[in-house]
């Protein structure tokens, strides 16, 4: 069985079908999912889970790889696909997930479209449609062999992931964070920092995705701290710094992850209401070409919360005020 890092050299040679379902994952990320399915995952050591399947492109790539893996028993193992499978408030879904690229009038669910494009694999793809707090089992203890996290866009959803899925990781489990290039999601970054003593990062991020394997048993208190967000502000920043020491740029040299993670520190402070300090970290990063091009709205969000500067006092007004104070003091 290859290590995760041994899959990297094959990324350029993978040929996936041209008509894959729409996805917001890059071609490299889809190829990596395919390689994982074909060469690494079996389902024999635990559940195979994708959180945030969207229109099905990433699910299709992983399922295609699994279908070509002689060690995968599609009669018994399952690839679990979780998503709202609808557009609308709180879902972060796009109408491009519909087969025609646009939602039909009066329709918000693209579940039928997902089922249609995943048709060749529906015998082993198990769909969990709806709010993850309602579709996941809080009592499930079965180990997880593979966890693809592309759903933790809010702290609320991340809490569910941290409570119900992370504690099921075991040595040998593989986890992919697809949104690791998102500075607004600092919980992904400092939680990874908390896990560093127990994991091995596969290599440079594959575009936006950080991949790692669990190598040591993760203590229950670490899972508890992550689920309860039981870290001080300074601890969160220190944990992100620890991740910065492990990764620099993505495997194509296009995404400067150390700068991305530095901006994530600013969002830790921003969410805690320390807007001055957040901007102190963020402002120098406006000179980073990648962040300036792709995250301009992030900078505006932080800067907009800065306290308004005190109004300037005209010199004549200041002289009058000083004169009044002097008269009161008997100096004139």
TrEMBL record:
<protein>
    <submittedName>
        <fullName>Class I SAM-dependent methyltransferase</fullName>
    </submittedName>
</protein>
<dbReference type="GO" id="GO:0032259">
    <property type="term" value="P:methylation"/>
</dbReference>
<dbReference type="Pfam" id="PF13578">
    <property type="entry name" value="Methyltransf_24"/>
</dbReference>
<dbReference type="GO" id="GO:0008168">
    <property type="term" value="F:methyltransferase activity"/>
</dbReference>
<dbReference type="InterPro" id="IPR029063">
    <property type="entry name" value="SAM-dependent_MTases_sf"/>
</dbReference>
<keyword id="KW-0489">Methyltransferase</keyword>
<keyword id="KW-0808">Transferase</keyword>
């Amino acid at each position: 069985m290859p290590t995760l890092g041994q899959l990297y050299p094959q990324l350029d040679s993978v040929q996936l079908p041209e008509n894959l379902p729409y996805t917001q994952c890059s071609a490299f990320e889809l190829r990596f999912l395919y390689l994982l399915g074909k060469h690494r995952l079996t389902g024999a050591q635990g559940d195979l889970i994708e959180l945030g399947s969207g229109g099905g492109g990433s699910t299709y790539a992983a399922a295609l790889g699994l279908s070509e893996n002689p060690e995968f028993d599609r009669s018994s193992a399952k690839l679990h696909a979780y998503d709202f499978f609808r557009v609308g408030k709180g879902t972060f879904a796009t109408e491009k997930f519909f087969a025609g690229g646009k939602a039909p009038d009066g329709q918000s669910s693209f579940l039928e479209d997902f089922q249609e494009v995943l048709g060749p694999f529906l015998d082993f793809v198990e769909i969990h449609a709806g709010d993850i707090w309602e579709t996941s089992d809080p009592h499930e203890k079965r180990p997880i062999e593979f966890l693809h996290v592309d759903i933790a866009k809010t702290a609320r959803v991340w809490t569910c992931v941290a409570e119900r899925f992370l504690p099921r990781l075991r040595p040998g489990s593989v986890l992919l964070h697809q949104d690791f290039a998102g500075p607004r999601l600092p919980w992904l970054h400092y939680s990874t920092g908390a896990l560093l003593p127990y994991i091995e990062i596969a290599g440079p991020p594959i575009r936006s995705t950080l991949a790692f394997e669990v190598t040591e048993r993760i203590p229950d208190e670490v899972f508890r701290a992550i689920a309860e967000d039981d870290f001080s502000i300074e601890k969160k920043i220190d944990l992100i710094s620890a991740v910065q020491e492990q990764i620099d740029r993505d495997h194509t040299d296009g995404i400067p992850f150390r700068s991305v993670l530095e901006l994530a520190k600013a969002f830790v402070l921003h969410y805690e209401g320390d807007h001055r300090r957040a901007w102190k970290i963020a402002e120098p990063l406006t000179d980073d070409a990648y962040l300036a091009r792709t995250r301009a709205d992030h900078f505006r969000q932080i800067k907009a919360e800065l306290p308004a500067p005190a109004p300037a006092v005209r010199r004549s007004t200041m002289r009058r005020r000083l004169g009044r104070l002097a008269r009161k003091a008997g100096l004139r």
